[in-house]
Amino acid sequence: MKDSVPVPFAKSTAILPTAMLLAALTLAGCKTDTEFDDRGGFKIARSACPAAAIATYTGDVTLFDPVAARTVEAIDVTATIANLQTRCNESGNGPQIQVTAEFDVHARRAAAGPARTLTLPWFATVLRAGNQIESKQVGTITISFADGQLRGSSHASATAMVSRTAATLPPEILRRINRKRKAGDADAALDPMNEPTIRDAVNKANFELLVGFQLSESQLAYNASR
Description:
The protein is of the alpha+beta class. Helices cover 15% and strands 41% of the residues. It has one domain (18-225). The chain contains 4 helices and 10 strands. A hairpin with a 3-residue loop joins β7 (116-128) and β8 (132-145). The radius of gyration is 22 Å and the shape is elongated.
């Protein structure tokens, strides 16, 4: 039986308002496929590997010159995270499951000029049950613009660990989900995921690995307002 999935903070110089932080954490929950099986019961298909996604409002960043400006004419550089891919191996009996996320960053400057190097901060956060932050990694990626070129790209990777025990559904919950149901039983057609105990257990076993640019409060507000 497979089970399942790891968001942003402001830079150390700024603290996001609670509402903005919650907005940045917003992401559709990890998919859990529940369906009837051929025995008259249910079967649930999940993976203990965390699902990976780009956190809401943090997949791109806009730099302005001057910094405080917010007009189109003042845009200096825009950058976007793309091609997010993960590697995860849930086999084995180790206490933790490792997941590695790799992604590209594509940047464009407003005007061609001399060669230029730009460093952008990013984060990778493990989120449990949709709102519980388990860990966070912060790194940087360097973009180089060649002389006279408008575009530059670079590649980065992040690694996170997830507790195997926490990401695995308890045997009792699995038994309740997968137990056989006979036609005529009062609960034969009821989805076990509607039971609060089962639903909460599945939710707690869900982990996500979310990546994005490490934005300041004003940068995040700018992204959210577009």
